[in-house]
Amino acid sequence: MSTIASGEKAVALSARSLVYSYDSAPALKGVTMQVGRGEILSITGASGSGKSTLLLCLAGVLPPDAGEVRLGERVISAESESDRSRLRRSQIGVVFQFGQLVPEMTALENVALPLLLGGSRRSAAEAAARTWLERFEVGGLADARPTDMSGGQAQRVAIARAMVTEPEIVFADEPTGALDSLSGELVMTQLVRVARDAGTTVVLVTHDARVSAYGDREITLRDGELDAQPADLIDMSAS
């Protein structure tokens, strides 16, 4: 089992001894790690190394078979699916490789959706959505539907949707994987800029070294375990 430190930052998210298997095939084999508040952490590894599974466990999408995930003092891995779903609509944002925008909705409606699901009034939700679209320089696409956008534009709208609730932490799984290099660079530059301005913690899964370089720190998964360097090892037994 490997343990990875987050440096001197206050801890935003921590995981202890995470185990997860698909049927009898182990994807995570006792991963322990933590992410500092406001940190941008890159998780890298070969295809099949378990990095996307780790992200889904950290984000509360998948409950681990063993171990725990804490967001601050909250043990989210022990909560019900409905509680974790509510958490992802407020304190956690998730971005996937293909954005997963609702095709029938405009950019404005897509970005406002998490706020509406959380009980916000439509006028307030749409005002916040416009602000976040502007922050990602796609404000002019407010009335456009996903089929009318380029891949890079759609991904920026998806990231705006993930951040509209001003979450504590955003998880991004291969956010540039479906984009050309120029569009990917623009998406990452804007994601990092906006996250820094907002003080948002970002956990980024990628196989692309150019994307990983945007992180403050990089960890690598190999066959479901963290490939730790000696200087990164710490004892979390008392935490």
From TrEMBL:
Q: Which GO terms describe its cellular component?
A: plasma membrane
Question: Is ATP-binding among this UniProt entry's keywords?
Answer: yes
Could you tell me which SMART domains the record lists for this protein? AAA (SM00382)
Q: Output one GO MF annotation.
A: transmembrane transporter activity
Return any one Pfam family short name: ABC_tran
Q: Which Gene3D superfamilies match?
A: P-loop containing nucleotide triphosphate hydrolases
**PROSITE patterns referenced in this protein's UniProt entry, alphabetically:** ABC_TRANSPORTER_1, ABC_TRANSPORTER_2
Is Ubl conjugation there in the keyword field?
Answer: no
InterPro entries documented for this protein: AAA+_ATPase, ABC_transporter-like_ATP-bd, ABC_transporter-like_CS, ABC_transpr_LolD-like, MacB-like_ATP-bd, P-loop_NTPase
Domain named ABC transporter is located at 13-238
Record keywords? ATP-binding, Nucleotide-binding, Transport
Question: What protein does this entry describe?
Answer: ABC transporter domain-containing protein
Please tell me the species this chain comes from. Luteipulveratus halotolerans
